[in-house]
């Protein structure tokens, strides 16, 4: 079964302050241009295209698991900037297709994305070290005769 491409979006709603919704969709999301963003019921904050949509959603859920409010609805109690940083830092090939203009120039976004990427690299190095150690121990103990 081939993995399907799609978009991960980060949205907020005026009637749900303090909550962010992360949603997977196969249709390209659009921010409506008809009314000011503050008056829209659902406000698109970020969208990115992923080649492996469901894998990307799983990574986002893992990154934000401590802030999860409702897994089915994709709701998290987190600031939009932090949610965007978590999605943007996912170690899968993706392309940003939309970023809320009010957050685009915020230097904290780039800092948080880089901090999350550094943490991912550190965790990868630790697990690589654990794997190398396990192989060395296996090789060492396979040379010792039991009988």
Mind explaining what this structure looks like?
The protein has about 150 residues and is of the alpha+beta class. It contains four helices and six strands. It has helices at about 55-65, 80-90, 100-105, 105-140; strands at about 5-15, 20-25, 40-50, 70, 75, 95-100. It has a six-stranded antiparallel sheet. A hairpin with a 4-residue loop joins strand 4 and strand 5. Helix 2 packs across helix 4. The longest helix has about 35 residues, at about 105-140. The radius of gyration is 20 Å and the shape is elongated. The termini are far apart. The mean pLDDT is about 85.
The SSE string, one letter per element, is EEEHEEHEHH
Morphology: elongated
Oligomer: single chain
The profile of the biggest β sheet is: 6 strands, antiparallel
| Low-confidence blocks of residues | none
Q: Order of strands side by side in the largest beta sheet?
A: 4-5-2-1-3-6
The Cα radius of gyration reads 20 Å
Percent of sequence in beta strands: 15-25%
Distance between the termini: 48 Å
**Mean model confidence by pLDDT:** 87
- Work out the number of β strands: 6
Give the proportion of residues in helices: 40-55%
Helix run count: 4
SSE-based structural type:
alpha+beta
């Amino acid at each position: 079964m081939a993995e399907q491409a799609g978009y991960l979006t980060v949205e907020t709603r005026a009637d749900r302050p303090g909550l962010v919704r992360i949603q997977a969709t196969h249709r390209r999301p659009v921010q409506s241009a008809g009314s000011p963003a503050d008056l829209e019921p659902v406000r698109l904050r970020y969208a990115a295209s992923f080649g492996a949509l469901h894998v990307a959603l799983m990574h986002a859920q893992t990154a934000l698991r401590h802030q999860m409010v409702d897994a089915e609805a994709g709701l998290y109690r987190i600031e939009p900037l932090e949610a965007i940083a978590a999605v943007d830092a996912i170690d899968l090939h993706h392309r940003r297709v939309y970023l809320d203009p009010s957050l685009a120039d915020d230097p904290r976004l780039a800092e948080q994305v880089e901090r999350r990427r550094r943490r991912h690299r550190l965790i990868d190095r630790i697990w690589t070290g654990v794997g190398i150690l396990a192989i060395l121990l296996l090789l060492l103990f396979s040379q010792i005769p039991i009988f």
